[in-house]
Amino acid sequence: MPKKTIFFAVLAISACALAFAPRPQSPARPSSPAAFVAPAGPVHAADDGLALTPPMGWYPWNEFGQEPQNEALIRQISEALVKSGMKEAGYAYVGPDEGICFSRDASGRLTTNLERYPSGLRGLGDVIHAQGLKYALYTDAGTLTCSKAMPGTKDREVEDMAAFAEWRADYVKIDWCNTKGQDIVKTYIKLHDAQHAAGRPIVHSLCSWGDGEPWKWAASVGHLWRTTSDICGPGKADWPHALKMAAQNERLYAAAGPGHWNDPDMMITGMDGLSESQNRSFFSLWCMMAAPLMAGNDLRRMTESTIRILTNLEAIAINQDPLGVQGHIVRRSGPVEIWAGKPLFDGSRALLVFNPGTAPAEVKIAWSDIGLADSAALYVRDVWTHKTTGPQGGGLAVTVAPNDVALLRVSKTDAFPIPPIIVADSYRVALRDDRVVRDNRVVRNDPGAQTLAGTITVKNNGSAELPLWKVRPGLPSWLSISVSGNGKIQTFTNTVSTAGLKKGSYHAVVRADNVEPVSEKPMSALYYDVDLEVTGGAGAAPRNGR
Ligand code: GLA
What we know:
Elements: H1 3-17, H2 45-48, E1 56-58, H3 61-64, H4 71-83, E2 93-94, E3 103-104, E4 110-111, H5 120-130, E5 134-140, H6 157-166, E6 171-175, H7 184-198, E7 203-207, E8 224-226, H8 239-250, E9 261-263, H9 276-288, E10 293-295, H10 304-310, H11 313-319, E11 328-333, E12 336-343, E13 349-355, E14 361-366, E15 378-382, E16 387-392, E17 395-400, E18 404-411, E19 422-424, E20 428-432, E21 436-438, E22 441-444, E23 451-460, E24 470-471, E25 479-485, E26 489-497, E27 504-513, E28 526-534
Parallel strand pairs: 1-2, 1-10, 2-5, 5-6, 6-7, 7-8, 8-9, 20-28
Antiparallel strand pairs: 3-4, 11-12, 12-13, 13-18, 14-17, 15-16, 15-18, 19-23, 21-22, 23-26, 24-27, 25-26, 27-28
Bound molecules: alpha-D-galactopyranose.
């Protein structure tokens, strides 16, 4: 191994074990995006069915920066995500950001920092999956991560993506620090190909802060791309800066769609320094922009108001709409912004009136402002007060307080259904044949064929009744799956037979697909892992576990 590599490996371990070096510089702000451009070429998600609605979850950076990211924090946050009701509202992806703290061993393989992550990065993944959550990890496309405390993936793309697959990641954010001289398009294509070769379907989150205008090309290599610089420094919500991020992202609306999203960064809702109306406005803007809803606040200490905002299913319904259209500003009235251009799956439309000014404002909106006939008699649903009015013709007048919003749905009927919000009890089935060891003695060891079963229960917290999920064919011969239940709760029964299997570990990734019945749009594919441990057979399992 060349000496230089040894130096980096040692540096990485000590930097993460002690404290991070001060951050050299924050990434450059992207130049103002020019006119929006719809992405050319195939959409990555067409193959893997991932992120057909904007990803929802939590990432540590906004609140914590790199410290104190560790296993204890991620476990506590995952628990808070479940207890607060956020999981039931659709938030799923959770994991470390740059505090992932891996380093390279002598052979160049990424290795876990066991002081920070005692269960190992794979072990933490299993914990997260067992809670019915999805595992999000972090890396950088350059030579080093932004703080320079960890190695980047440059020239190790294949090996590193294989490591993420081994750790069972479902989502990987790929930063763009220390990439001097690298071609951004070629680099992210290389990472996409490496991930594909690793064989695990993973949401790819490109993080170049708008550098290289990813909205023009990244739909074929990733599922979302940052359009802006960091929304805040760690622990410091910055309202005026957040509004700039929203403005930069708004202009790119034509580039967003199912499986390819503009990402104006993690949310600041619930961070110190924001008023309730700012929290509500921020969340409404992110819902209207079909932005990824990655919470960035400390979920362990949320006020009731923050929880109410983050879990408002009526607002989330606008964000998670199966048509996947990003809304935009259609008119201004003084400082007030009128956002529309967001048709929803049931034929209704979303409408956001945002007042960033300093005085209350009354705004009149004609139905024709939002693309409807003024003569239409329409119902109006206020997503924050949960009240429906109408039917009324012509339009409506709303008064909005400073820094506040009216987030509305307008429809010919008063039904206002919620699209599918999918929540699983677990994303991992782990089975083991019944070899029982007590006091170091095998008390039961049946080498004969055994049939074992484990279930995954999947709920739909939306209002539509879903058809049964369809499991993709191509399962290994030891695994069979049946799906039963109704439009709201379905059970995947995973039956394995150890007949003919050698001693060893077996693994399969199961994919199931479904279609939202009102719009007939494909839903994000559902993936989970099945692990089988065979202790009773003879010999060793084949390497690929099949
Ligand atoms: C960049 C990203 C942030 C965060 C940090 C980690 O600044 O934009 O979201 O991941 O790196 O260093």
